[in-house]
Design goal:
The complex is a heterotrimer. Chain A is an alpha/beta fold. Chain A has one domain: Rossmann fold (3-Layer(aba) Sandwich). Chain A contains ten helices and seven strands. Chain A has a seven-stranded mixed beta sheet, with helices on both faces. In chain A, strand 1, helix 2 and strand 2 form a beta-alpha-beta unit. Chain A is globular, with a radius of gyration of 17 Å. Chain B has one domain: Pyruvate-ferredoxin oxidoreductase, PFOR, domain III (Pyruvate-ferredoxin Oxidoreductase, domain 3, 3-Layer(aba) Sandwich). Chain B has a six-stranded mixed beta sheet, with helices on both faces. By secondary structure, chain C is of the alpha/beta class. Chain C has two domains: about 230 residues, 3-Layer(aba) Sandwich (Rossmann fold), CATH 3.40.50.970; about 110 residues, Rossmann fold (3-Layer(aba) Sandwich), CATH 3.40.50. In chain C, about 40% of the residues lie in helices and about 20% in strands. In chain C, helix 1 packs across helix 2, helix 1 runs parallel beside helix 6 and helix 9 crosses helix 12. Classes of the chains: A alpha/beta, B alpha/beta, C alpha/beta. Chains A and C meet through strand 1, strand 2, helix 3 and helix 5 of A and helix 3, helix 4 and strand 9 of C. Strand 2 of chain A pairs parallel with strand 9 of chain C.
Chain lengths: ~250, ~180, ~350
């Protein structure tokens, strides 16, 4: 009998707490597959955020530190400076990274901190129950933007990858979308590249994954995938924004 | 024996260094010493001062509130610190920059033209060392050799060529205080 | 005398950290502690260490968290407003049981306050400071030499208890120069390995550094374990100095630089035949409540002197527990009480007793 699919070694044999249709599970798997393929599990230290992925340390089978809200890049900096030969990654949502932790991510990128950030952009706060995120779309209804996000008072969604692209020491920056199989394959390639960038000591790497939150969006999983493609992708263009070799591919 | 001093002047006159050299000299002689600077934005362009204590016994407060000696390198320093002097305390005035008389009559005053004397030995930037010479001549808390030793410790290597000049300035200050 | 050097408190604390085997420092500028990070920026590269100026105090303490979790001896320093910003991270460190040394060179508050010496962060330092039921081990030096000794010890204590330790100084301790000598040196290689640290899980189960427990019972377990540690600290780590308390009828209680100023007042009163003594708590948590309580049995009153509006006063009253009256004298906002003022306050109270 041939094994065609199995749980990556870097994941625990444990059901997750994520909602049905949520793409966190896919992203966990992609990261774990990359860790397996690069054979770096025993050298990897993850940093969990505050947000839906707060329990990431329960699912990944590698050393982990749980960070305060938004502070994962600072925690990762501390770890990486002590253990420059190890792999350090943060796993952060949009509220964590682009709101309360804006200073930390910007400065980690500016320093070219040799870490990898997995950035989940699902345009909403999930764990706290569907509040407006800095990446919430204009007109999108959330519990704290009940009439739709109004740019006059709430500004326009932050494009994180574009913002970080101005830093010369941010070596690898890409945005991918998890709305179909083809794009999921691309997402894995981007995550692999990000970790390879770290392995080569080339500086800061980040992959932004356009993700779903069917529960708080009030959609079924299929509708949510469509919404990513039709509403988020036009505002958040996919592609590699920076690569260590230079050049862009979008 | 415990002597408490406040040394004050413009930022850039070297009053901090003067205090450090004095404290260092005391340390070389095995005495108890402390040096406490004024700090913060007032330092930049304003007046700077430091509190120095040289003592045979353990030092209590490093903060000097009623000094035995005040060295005023400029007028604002005299106005500010002369009133704090102990009765019978010593006020050393840099007469190169201060031409008014202190109001208090219950203190001893000596006037040292520190900038002029320093210029005579080669650089008016050594005015602080002239004043330091006057201190050790009048107060006898440390030996001049200890001051020179301490100066070597406190000056960066690249400035060591200035030590003979500073030594000369010290001696001029001592002589001026003797007259 | 030859091996003594004249050093600023801030710089001496930094060197003491390095001598204790600390090779990682994360900080952010704030007066009056700036000489400490600047010294680290100069010295740590010589020791193959890391100095990093963080984007904020918030980031700095979280870098400390990460480095401590990765098993390193690590340090940060700040002054009052910056320490307030660090409270979140300190609470997380206490909750995740991470060692680390935090230096607070206190300036006057509240708010932006001033930059002159104060002791107005006593309650913040000793009662937890951030959210949750935790304590720091808090040590308050009164001289530059003691700042060196306590800083070196702080790293051992932090590792022993897996708990953050705070060195509580003030602008005077940080800025003043005094002769110091360094009692020895530990290299990071000599330190015992930390089996709990996240360094990669080669051949073992994953290590998790974490303060999250969604199950109430689990979180209670953590809290009970922390309380047990604090109790052990109370049994093993109390540090206190008493001067002339054996026959004292009146007792001054003061800590840090305030205590040395108070001692001058005590000595002067003694010269006049007044039986006064001084208790100087060196560990502010754990507090030397037994010593204070015992001396209170013979005292006609105690006088607490602080550079604040009466913070340690609460601990003195708890320790005295009604055995004698407890009075207070303080100046605040950066005003340093003189020994003359303390002496006058003391004599006024003594006259009131007679």
């Amino acid at each position: 009998m041939k094994v065609v699919a199995k749980r990556p070694r870097a994941l625990m044999d444990k059901p997750t707490h994520y909602c049905p249709g949520c793409t966190h599970g896919i992203t966990h798997r992609l990261v774990a597959e990359v860790i397996d393929e690069m054979d770096i599990r025993e050298k990897t230290i993850g940093v969990a955020p505050v947000g839906c992925a707060v329990l990431a340390y329960e699912y990944f089978d590698c050393d982990f530190q749980q960070a305060a809200h938004g502070r994962a890049p600072a925690v990762a900096t501390g770890i990486k400076r002590v253990l420059p030969e190890n792999f350090v990654f943060t796993y952060q949502g949009d509220g964590d990274l682009a709101s309360i932790g804006t200073a930390e991510i910007v400065h980690a990128a500016m320093r070219g901190e040799n870490i990898t950030t997995i950035f989940i952009n699902n345009a909403i706060y999930g764990m706290t129950g569907g509040q407006m995120a800095p990446t919430t779309m204009i007109g999108q209804k959330t519990t704290t933007s009940p009439y739709g996000r109004d740019s006059k008072s709430a500004g326009e969604p932050i494009r994180v990858v574009e913002m970080l692209s101005t830093f010369s020491r941010a070596a690898y920056l890409a945005r991918v979308g998890l709305f179909n199989n083809k794009e999921i394959k691309k997402a894995k390639k981007a995550i692999r590249k990000a970790f390879e960038t770290q392995k080569a000591g080339q500086g800061f790497s980040l992959v932004e994954l356009l993700s779903t939150c069917p529960t708080n969006w009030g959609m079924n999983p299929a509708e949510a995938l469509d919404w990513v493609e039709s509403n988020m992708v036009p505002y958040y263009p996919l592609g590699e924004y920076k690569t260590p070799e230079g050049g862009e591919d979008r | 024996m415990m002597k408490e001093l406040i040394i004050a002047g413009f930022g850039g006159q070297g009053v901090m260094l003067m205090g450090q050299v004095l404290a260092g000299a005391g340390m070389f002689e095995g005495k108890e010493v402390s040096w406490l600077p004024s700090y913060g934005p007032e330092m930049r362009g304003g007046t700077a001062n430091c509190h120095v204590i040289v003592s045979e016994e353990r030092i209590g407060s490093p903060f000097v509130s009623s000094p035995d000696v005040v060295v005023a390198m400029n007028l604002p320093s005299m106005d500010k610190f002369a009133p704090q002097l102990k009765e019978g305390g010593l006020l050393i005035i840099n007469s190169s920059l201060i031409d008014t008389e202190p109001e208090r009559k219950d203190i001893r005053v000596i006037k040292i033209p520190a900038n002029e004397l320093a210029a005579e030995v080669g650089s008016d930037r050594a005015a602080n060392m002239v004043a330091l010479g006057a201190i050790i001549e009048k107060v006898k808390i440390v030996e001049v050799d200890s001051i020179i030793e301490s100066l070597k410790e406190n000056l960066p290597e690249r400035h060591h060529k200035l030590i003979p000049l500073n030594e000369e300035a010290l001696k001029r200050g001592m002589e001026a205080a003797r007259d | 005398m030859a091996d003594k050097i004249l050093m600023k408190g801030n710089e001496a604390i930094a060197e003491a950290g390095i001598k204790a085997g600390c090779r990682f420092f994360f900080g952010y500028p704030i007066t009056p502690q700036n000489e400490l990070p600047a010294y680290m920026a100069r010295r740590l590269p010589m020791e193959d260490g890391v100095f990093l100026q963080a984007e904020s105090e918030v980031a700095a303490i979280n870098m400390v968290y990460g480095a401590a979790g990765a098993g390193a001896r690590v340090m940060t320093s700040s002054s009052s407003p910056g320490i307030s910003l660090k409270q979140e991270g300190i609470s997380y460190m206490a909750g995740s049981e991470l060692p680390g040394v935090i230096v607070n060179i206190i300036r006057g508050g509240p708010g932006l306050g001033g930059i002159q010496p104060a002791q107005s962060d006593y309650l913040q330092a000793t009662k937890g400071g951030g959210h949750g039921d935790y304590r720091l081990l808090v040590l308050a030096p009164q001289s530059v030499q003691e700042a060196v000794d306590l800083t070196m010890e702080a790293f051992d204590l932090a590792d022993k208890y897996r708990n953050p330790v705070m060195i509580l100084g003030d602008g005077m301790i940080g800025q003043m120069m005094e002769p110091v000598e360094f009692p020895g040196e530990t290299s990071p290689e000599e330190l015992p390995k930390k089996e709990w640290a996240t360094v990669g899980n080669e051949g073992r189960k994953a290590n998790i550094i974490n303060s999250l427990s969604l199950q109430a019972e689990k979180l209670e377990e953590l809290n009970l374990r922390l309380q047990k540690k604090y109790k052990q600290m109370q049994e093993e780590e109390v540090r206190v100095e008493t001067t002339k308390t054996e026959d004292a009828e009146y007792v001054i209680v003061a800590f840090g630089s305030m205590a040395r100023i108070a001692l001058s007042a005590v000595e002067r009163a003694r010269e006049e035949g007044i039986k006064v003594g001084l208790i100087r708590p060196i560990s502010l948590f754990p507090y030397p409540e037994q010593v204070v309580g015992k001396v209170a049995e013979q005292a006609k009153f105690m006088l607490t002197v602080e550079m604040n509006c009466g913070q340690m006063l609460e601990d003195v009253r708890l320790a005295v527990n009604g055995r004698c009256p407890v009075y207070f004298y303080g100046r605040t906002g950066g005003v340093v009480p003189t020994s003359q003022e303390i002496y006058e306050k003391l004599m006024e109270l003594v006259r009131g007793e007679k």
